[in-house]
Amino acid sequence: MLNLAKIIVDVPTMQTNEPYTYRIPEFLSDQLQRGMRVIVPFGNGSRKIQGIVWDIDYAGTFDGQLKDIESVMDLSPVLNSELLSMSKWMANKTFSFQISCILTMLPGVMHAKYQKQLKLLDSSIDNEDVKKLFYKSKIIDFNPEELENDILKNIIKLKRNNKIEIKYNVKNKAHAKKILGIQPIIKPSDVETIFKDVRKNAVNQQKLLTYIKDNPQEIIAQRYLCNKYNISESTIKTAIKKKWLIQTQIEEYRNPYKQKVERNYPLKLNNEQQSAVNKINDPIINSLDKVFLLEGVTGSGKTEVYLQAIQKALSMNKTALMLVPEISLTPQMSRRVKGRFGDRVAMLHSGLSNGERYDEWRRIERGEADVVVGARSAIFAPLNDIGIIIMDEEHDSSYKQDETPRYHTRDVAKWRAKYHKCPVVLGSATPSLESRARATKGLYDLIKLPHRINNKSLPKVNIIDMKNELINNGDEDFSDELLNAINNRISKGEQIVLMLNRRGYSSFIMCRTCGFVLKCPNCDISLTLHMDTKTMKCHYCGHEEQIPYKCPNCNDNKIRYYGTGTQKVQSKLQKLVPNSRIIRMDVDTTRKKGAHERLLQKFGQGKADILLGTQMIAKGLDFPNVTLVGVLNADTSLDLPDFRSSEKTFELLTQVSGRAGRAEKNGLVYIQTFNPDNYAIQLSKNQDYEQFYRTEMHLRHITNYPPYYFTVKITSSDVNESKAASKMFEISKILKAKLSNQTIMLGPSPSSILRIKNKYYYQIILKYKNEPNLHACLEYILQHYQKDAQKGLYVNIDPDPLNFM
Ligand SMILES: Nc1ncnc2c1ncn2[C@@H]1O[C@H](COP(=O)(O)OP(=O)(O)OP(=O)(O)O)[C@@H](O)[C@H]1O
Ligand SMILES: [Zn+2]
Ligand SMILES: [Zn+2]
C-alpha cells in the first residue's frame, strides 16, 4: 500500500492538465490535505516547483519511479473543494491550464517565486572569477541576467563537468505582518506585593502594573499599550527584566482604509425599487440559483437595491459578493458599501498593495468578512455560503480577463451561483447585448427601473456637429454652445463634467514636411507624448525616448504635436474660461495611490467647477451639483475596427450623460461629434436603450455577429513573422478539416497591431452557432501546440473575445 497524492504542478513551459503522482512522506501523512500548496521535485530532481494537492489517495497503486513531496507551504488548504472544482471547469471553459486558473484565484503573494541557486560541488575549481562568487558560502543565489557573459560561460562549463549544480527553489512570498506584542506573566494576586516594591516616583511602572492587574495574561500590541497609557519603551524594557511580562509576535492586518467612512442607513425604497428587491430576495430566501438582469436608467437607484438585497442575505446568515468594474475607479461606491456594512466588508482591488490584498483575502477566508466588494478577480473570493452575487455595470469590458485564463466574470458568477444556490444580479443602464438577449429569451429574469429617483427627468442631450464648428470658428475642441453653457453654469455656482473620449491619453507627433510619425522600435504603434516626463512613450512595451525637436527623417524642424491630450485641453480651457477651477483626471494625474479618490473628493466638496477627464469619469459618479456634461469628442470609439464599436459608443455616451442632473436641478448634455448622423450617437440623444438594442440586434443579425453567433479567436505569436503566420495557416487547415461548413472563418490574418514587444501576431476568428466538434478540436490545438511554447511560439485561444483586433 502506498501513500500517494495527485499534484497539479506549475511548470510554465510544459503545462498539462493531468496531475502528477507523488509519494506522501511519513512526516506529512497526517498533515496533507486537498487544496494545500506543496513543493515537489520535478524533472531530474534538482528542480523544485510549486504544486497544489488535487487528490489524496492513500491506497493508490503506481508503477514507475515515484518522488516524495518535499514540503507543504500551508498549514491549512488555500483552496476549498468548491474552488478546486471550479478550477477544473474553468480550465475547460477557457482553454487554459488548470494551474493557471488556480493561480488566478489566489492572491499574487501566493504564487511561487522561483529562485535559482548555484551549489559548489567541487571546491578545487580553478576559475578565479567563479571561485570569487562562492567566497562566502557554497550555495549562492543565481541571477544569470546579472552576471557577465564570460562568467556565465564558465559556470555552464563547470556545470557540465559536475563541479557546480543549479538548484531551483520555491520562495513563499505570503507573509502575515507581524508586530511586537506583550503579554503579562505575573498573577494578578501578586501585583499588590510587587506594587509595594516599586519606588513612589516611578509613575510609569505603577501605571503599567495597574494595567497588568486589570488585564492579566492578555496579549496586546506594544505600540498600542504605550500610546494608550502613555508608557515609554524603557518602562517596558524594565518590566521585561523584572519578569512582569514577555514580548511576543502578533499578527496585524494591514489596513488599507486610511479614510474614515461615514455610516449610512437603508433608504426608504420607492415602489419600483421595492418590487425589484422583493424579486431578488425570493431566491435568496429559498436558495435558488437564478439570474436577474436589472436594467435601470442612470440615477434610478440600483445601488440601493443591491445594498438592501445584500442586507437580506446577511440576515439569513449568508455572505454577499459584489463586483464593480475597477473599484479604485469608483471610490464613491466603496464608501457606500463600507458605510452600510462597516467592518464586515472586505475590499479586493488593484489599488491595494500585495500585502493588503493578502490580508483582505485571509479575513474573508477566516469568515471575518462576509461582504466582499471588488473588481474582476474578487469573483474568486473564498466565501462560504454565498447568498447573492451582484455585478454592477455588467456590460463593462474589464470583467473579461485579457490574458490567460481568458475568463468572463459573468460566467464564473453563474457557476458559483449554481454551486451555492443563490441569485446573480447583473445591473446596468446599458446591458451588454448578450445579456439583454438572454433576458428576452427568458434565460434571465428582466427587472426594469425605468425612472430616476423622485421621477427626476433624464438630462436633455444636444448633439453638436463639429464639422460646422470647425469651419465657422476653427476650433475642434470647444463649440460656442458648450462654452456658453460652461460659463453659464459657473456663474450659477453649478458644476460641470467634461469627457475627452480617448483610448490613449496623450498625443503623437508628426512632421508637417514629410509626414513622418515617430513609432516604437518594438511595436507597430506610434509613440505618445507625455508632457509630465517630457518623453515619448510606448503604451504597449514601455519603451521611452526623448522628444525629437527635429524630424528624425527629413531633419526639418516643422514637427507638430497632434491629437488632444487632456493636458492640452486643460490649458486651452483655462484660457477660454479664465475664472474656472479645473480638476484634470487621467492616467497621469491618478497614478499615485489614492489620487483618484482625493481628486473626486475635492470635486465633491465644490473646490472645483470642472472635472475634465478620460473615460474614467463616465461611470458611477453621483454628484448632485453637476448639471452640465460635455463630451468633447464622441467619435474616437466609433473608429475602432470592432463590431462592438457602436455598442461601446452608445454605452459610454449614455453613462456619461447620466452624471448630469441627478438631484434637484435639471441636467443638460452636449455631445460634440464629427459623425452627427451615426445611429449610436443619435440614439444616445434620448438615452433610449431599448431602441438601441433593437437597432443593434438587427445589424448583428444580418452581419452574423454575437449574440446571434458565438465567436472564438485563435492567435499565434512569434518573434519571427513567418513562423507565426505559417502556424496560423496550419491551424486553419486543421479547423477546416474538422468543422462543419456552417462555421465562418475570418483569416488567418495579421492582428490589427501586427507587432507588439517585438512579437508578430496572427489570428483566426471563428463564428459559429452550433458546432459540437469545436470544443474537442480547440482542446487538441491547445495541447498539440503547447510544445512550441518552449521555442517561443505561443498559440492562444480566446473564447467569446471582447476584442477582435
Ligand atoms: N429610495 C431612495 N430614496 C431617496 N434617494 C435615493 C433612493 N435610492 C437611491 N437614492 C439616491 O439616488 C441617487 C442615485 O442612485 P444610484 O447612484 O444608486 O443610481 P444608479 O442607478 O446606481 O445610477 P448609475 O447607473 O448612474 O450609477 C443616489 O444619490 C442615491 O443615494
Ligand atoms: Zn520630416
Ligand atoms: Zn513598444
From TrEMBL:
Domain Helicase ATP-binding: 283-449
Source organism, top-level taxon: Bacteria
Keyword annotations of the record: ATP-binding, DNA replication, DNA-binding, Helicase, Hydrolase, Isomerase, Metal-binding, Nucleotide-binding, Primosome, Zinc
Residues involved in Zn(2+) 2 binding: 520, 523, 538, 541
Record CDD domains: DEXHc_priA, SF2_C_priA
InterPro entries: Helicase/UvrB_N, Helicase_ATP-bd, Helicase_C-like, P-loop_NTPase, PriA, PriA_3primeBD, PriA_3primeBD_sf, PriA_C
Top EC class for this record: isomerase
EC number(s) from the headed UniProt entry: 5.6.2.4
Pfam families reported in the protein's UniProt record: Helicase_C, PriA_3primeBD, PriA_C, ResIII, Zn_ribbon_PriA
Keyword Kinase: no
Chain residues that bind Zn(2+) 1: 511, 514, 551, 554
Function text: Initiates the restart of stalled replication forks, which reloads the replicative helicase on sites other than the origin of replication. Recognizes and binds to abandoned replication forks and remodels them to uncover a helicase loading site. Promotes assembly of the primosome at these replication forks.
Subunit details: Component of the replication restart primosome.
Entry's family note: Belongs to the helicase family. PriA subfamily.
Protein name: Replication restart protein PriA
Lineage, highest ranks first: Bacteria, Bacillati, Bacillota, Bacilli, Lactobacillales
